[in-house]
Amino acid sequence: MTLILDNIAKIVSLSEAEKELFLSKIETQQYKAKIILHNAGEICKHSYFVNSGLLRSFNVNDNIVEHVLHFACEGWWIGDMYSLLSQKPGNLFIEVMEDAEVVLLSKENQEQLYFDIPKLERFFRILTENSLVAHQERLMDNLSLSAEDRFDKFCKRYPSLIQRVPQKQIASYIGVTPEFFSKMKSRMVKK
What we know:
It is a single chain. By secondary structure, the protein is α+β, with helices and mostly antiparallel strands. Strands 1, 2, 3, 4, 5 and 6 form a 6-stranded antiparallel sheet that branches. Strand 3 and strand 4 form a beta hairpin. Helix 4 crosses helix 5 and helix 7 packs across helix 8. The relative contact order is 0.15.
């Protein structure tokens, strides 16, 4: 459990008693690749923290095309934030891409921890703010950068994911078709 405690310690400092209380409110699960942790149309009941492995969140449009919203590897959080916060059915799937060990924090336990350990409310507020900033930056990149520039930025920002994520999902993340992505990569290699 040191990875999740180290993640929290980057933002707030917990006493030993607070660490024990936090650890009593989480659950760790092992999942095989291809398992769906959350389905679109369901109410998200957990935040997920990745101890090992790789997860992704995505939605599927009316034409059955997947749009990858987020990847999460070791030390990252993931969830359907709209659904988790509003407690309304969400529109994201969360899938295990590689065998994974995942920490689950239920909405109820998270709310109780805010009351019991107010520092954790600050921790999750800062996580949410950072997520909002990253999503706004990504939206602006999608509106203003070329596909090559978006891919280059993805490679620089997430170098550890390049070898772990299938090309078609990287293409989806940067907003292009797999065919376009393949041609674009060929052009970039020739430069």
